[in-house]
Specification:
single chain; 177 residues; mainly alpha; 6 helices
């Protein structure tokens, strides 16, 4: 009987941390998910939606940072950075998926590459704005570094893919004649 009680106690004690963990919500709203679903087969439209959603998260980051009345600012900034990175990862994953399917992404990639440049600039500007507040900068160092690395790495991949697609589809056009 005592073994049973001790066993139940240990099981319950082990479950407490699981119940206490907060699950991070999806960075996309229900409306955004519906918009993506509607554009599932249209690479250009879908990628433009991801760009708009990522841009919105960076704008939210700027608003939080400049709002003196914001409560729980650190958590909101971390959340906006994490949401941006997750959405940007989805954007990059969709580029890969459409490229693997053999879709012509040249037009869409031009928008993506412009957004890569914009996002990289905004993230660097955010980092520069933290230079005078070293303690505050350290709070976001990992998430900000991850976001910047993600954008920089993907931007190179996107430029390379555009060059590949320019050659591929130019050759297809020439072979069709």
């Amino acid at each position: 009987m005592i073994k049973l009680i001790v066993g139940l106690f240990l099981v319950m004690a082990a479950m407490i941390p699981c119940a206490a963990q907060k699950r991070r919500p999806d960075p996309l709203s229900d409306l955004e998910v519906d918009q993506l679903r509607d554009a599932a087969q249209e690479p250009e439209a879908r990628l433009k939606l991801y760009i708009a959603f990522a841009r919105t998260r960076l704008e939210k980051l700027r608003q939080i940072q400049s709002d003196p009345k914001a409560t729980d600012k650190d958590e909101q900034i971390r959340g906006a950075l994490q949401d941006f990175t997750e959405i940007y990862d989805e954007l990059d994953g969709n580029v890969d998926t459409f490229a693997d399917r053999g879709d012509d992404l040249r037009k869409a990639l031009k928008s993506v590459i412009e957004a890569d440049t914009e996002f990289g600039s905004k993230l660097r500007a955010f980092k520069l704005s933290l230079e005078n507040a070293r303690e505050q900068a350290e709070k976001y160092d990992f998430l900000l570094g991850t976001a910047m690395e993600t954008v920089d790495s993907a931007a190179k991949d996107h430029r390379d893919l555009l060059a590949e697609q320019d050659v591929k589809f130019k050759n297809k056009k020439n072979n069709a004649h």
